[in-house]
Design brief:
Four copies of one chain form a homotetramer. By secondary structure, chain A is α+β, with helices and mostly antiparallel strands. Helix content of chain A is 49%, strand content 15%. Chain A has three domains: 156 residues, Gyrase A, domain 2; 70 residues, no CATH class; 55 residues, no CATH class.
Chain lengths: 309, 309, 309, 309
């Protein structure tokens, strides 16, 4: 497996977590390739820089995403297996990964920084909450460190590697690698080449750089995003404005927003006052919620988004 | 090719345009299949009807779309070739289509209703505008009808079909079908089986039932949508609320909206008054546009959406 | 639409049919990229040129095709619509195509060379047979030429282009382009950018450069193949040896072949004599066919392939 | 996570390894659906049972695989994570998997049968060889069992589960599940719904039921294959004959085979004698190999396949 020290002097590589990395090893196309592909549909016309920028922003804003497929990024990545298990779910990408059947897995395990050892979130069933402290933090850190080290020794023993615990098995082959690896925990590192087009990479970044994604894959996504920003600056900015940080307003929320605005305009009230009146008219908050067909959670989020609470 | 009269008594078929149809010939899964797949991730817990509904709406609202892939629809479709050319661009679907190399194309061409013979839109470069009238309408209708009929006769002549124009070629084979078909215009009908999962069908319907799509494919999309509505009523309603009729509010528009709302709340002004003040403060409309980094078109659309003009 | 004269001085473009072209406009990776991706699975070791060649041949021979996905080709193509209808069926590719809704279709139609005007094959239901001759040839050529020219005039009239037939419609818009195009036959040209990875391109070439494909798409495939040969010479040669010109020998054929060989070796007979004896032993050809579970067609093809008839 | 005892009375479920299972939970289409889709291309004609069988065999034999896409299988699967890591690489399928971020992983680990504890193969770099014996077997079995049990206790401790080792941490939340799972080895079980069409399932089975695949995924593939055999018997038999157990004969091997056959027929020699003469004529085995452009390995395999050694 490639180790960080082999690539750290290569400017296209960044360190990721304790043993991993993100390297951009090849690329096809940039902002100009997007424009070229789009113009085959939309016709020729003038092509000044400002118009190219406008065209790219138009495409992204209206989710006309096929021209984005003309740009490809090929990364060399090293990440823990549990991150890889999320990463591989993005099917519109090409992968060649290190094989634990063919090669010996290496002694590299992700041990989180103490500040990352966070308690289970009490709000988000799949998220992390406050950092652990004191004895609890110490136990967690020690457990992960100890398990990683001990399991690797067990792995070496199974494949009868001389560095493993001694079982006096002489020069025999040891257990097949494809079986011995079963004792390695999912914080063990793996390595891969990963190729994806810009449309699918934007889709990936929307989901995986999001605050609901596991923090480790957010970090991976953000390191890859830097390369997009460098090589496709106009598309990247459009992505941020119209896709990554856009919000989806449902038909229900749209109706409610428009009703509040109309009431504000028609009754000479502020936006907040109008909302309060709408609750009063409906009877109470729950009645308003039912009138619009919203769940309690939707109305809560609506109020937070539009600062009504 | 299957003709409408062969399937019109089958309740799962609907007529489409003048010679086409949409038939649902098989299906796997429904709302319950979506819930089943989602629960394997989210755990078990109680499963009352109302909770299933809430779960499906939650999934669609947050674009957790993989459980929607567990539902499949298989359609039998007949449509003009120019519609097929748009239809086939949806890659995540399976197709078996009538072959003009293997079989003789039939004398079925789409002749639009006179009310559909609309002028080129002066606003939308790829759309239709006002209906043609008088002599212009007559010419258009007659031209399309005549070309369809005459080209078909030419096609028959080329394949030396006895119904074609007589060229006294006796019983010879005639030009290969794969070549003779070259004279058929793209309003000629084709037929296919088309299978797609619900996630990708929703994506299709979002794009093709949209008012910017060509009217003929909108009609096709809406006929297929009826089957989704029948068999997955909860997912369909969630799709309408959170996906089909949702609007994407960009980071830029979100900032502007929040600023207007804040100004309304802080200065005791209505929503509209606040917007006018923001223009005044910036200098003029163009200055406001530049301050927020919007194109003129974006600000126009913003004002229309939030009734500010 | 881009015309041939605009690109003919560009060495990366080749002419295709009468108005079309194949241009390679971008590319990512080559033989070395395949090796790089494969080695991440198979480990490091020495990397001399001859070993790289052996590795690529090994990968292709055993259909370990994921490393081939690391190479991308982006083509600029112009082809008749009926060829595009076959081309687009390859779903694992990216397309941006000229839009007949947005832009005016041009007066470019594929008129085959007289030698290509072949009769329907009497053997192959979807193929072409002997070239037409005399009056039949003349009629076919004239029909295709006339229909193309006349339909284009009808198209111009519909969109109220001054070059169309005069209908005295003044300066009105004319029928919407998205509708007017319906009178254009499928030998009209379209233009596109097309991006595909090498694995999927090999799959395309296997099917479309095959003698059973329509001749026009074979020509397109072969022009693209030239670029693969230039940029990935080792992978190309491996493709030819192990994939494009390999034959698939079924379990049934394999058994029969082995039985003939065993009989030859055991009874001191030639290969052909052994086959004849096997027919005699079975009773007749049909009995042999049934004994091995072959269709008549399979046994016919078997005899042709192994020169037994 | 669903445990085997919950589903063992359901006839559509089979046990897989020690804690896993394969259940067929839904299906769309069968042999008739393949025929229906194919006939839309090939025309109507008579449809007796024998002809349907012939059509399906024809399709599979010529790799006209699109009609196979019309059949869908949906499985409920439970397998170790290291098998899942191979399984997920098949991208043309839909997955909903148990989430270790959302739910607690269960105390189920794959402990291979002693007979499966095989040494590293000395021939196949990614395979298993002879079974371990004696002390070595005991060590391997004990190590895998011990690591599985101890790591699970560490996992419980990390999430502060009362069944874990006591750390006197009271009723606090414990480490987030998304982090705690990092100590679980890849023989821990996961569960998923998996939906795939028949074309892609055949592709999967070709690769994963193959003797070069890891034995654990071969077993998974074979259990799924039983369901295909039951529901699509004609397609299954065609798959076995023409796809799964077919051999790919390269252009090189084809040439050599034909030359041996011609020499046998022309010189009144047996098949084996002819091969020996060809070696003599070339000089030696290596010269023959070079004459045909084969690697040593290819000629070795050729001789084994056609019983020439």
């Amino acid at each position: 497996m490639t180790v960080w020290s082999e690539v750290e002097n290569d400017a296209s590589y960044s360190k990721y977590l304790d043993h991993g990395f993100v390297g951009l090893v090849d690329r096809m196309g940039d902002d100009a390739a997007i424009v070229q592909a789009a113009r085959v549909s939309y016709g020729k016309g003038t092509k000044s820089v400002s118009e190219d920028r406008g065209l790219i922003r138009y495409l992204v804003r209206h989710f006309h995403t096929t021209p984005l497929e003309m740009v490809e990024f090929k990364f060399h990545l090293k990440m823990p297996i549990f991150v890889m298990r999320q990463h591989v779910r993005h099917r519109m990408a090409s992968i060649n990964e290190y094989s634990g059947r063919y090669s010996v897995m290496t002694d590299e395990f992700y041990i989180p920084e103490p500040s990352r050892l966070q308690a289970q979130s009490s709000i988000n069933k799949q998220g992390s909450g406050a950092p652990l402290e004191g004895q609890e933090l110490e136990m967690a850190f020690n457990t992960i460190s100890r398990v990683s080290a001990e399991n690797y020794l067990d792995y070496l023993s199974l494949i009868n590697d001389p560095s493993g615990r001694s079982y006096n098995l002489g020069d025999r082959e040891g257990l097949a690698r494809e079986l011995a690896r079963m004792v390695l925990p999912v914080n063990n590192y793996t390595e891969l080449y990963w190729k994806i087009d810009l449309k699918n990479l934007f889709h990936y970044l929307k989901l995986r750089a999001d605050s609901h994604a596991q923090q480790e894959i957010q970090m991976l996504a953000n390191l890859m995003a830097q390369h997009v920003k460098t090589h496709c600056p106009v598309a990247w900015e459009a992505f941020e404005d119209y896709w990554q940080h856009s919000i989806s307003v449902s038909r229900i929320e749209h109706n409610l927003l428009q009703d509040i605005i109309a009431l504000s305009n028609n009754t000479n009230a502020t936006f907040s006052e109008s909302y309060v009146r709408m609750i009063d008219t409906a009877g109470d908050r729950k009645a308003l919620q039912q009138k619009y067909g919203m769940s309690k959670r939707e109305l809560d989020e609506f109020e937070t988004l539009w600062r009504l609470n």
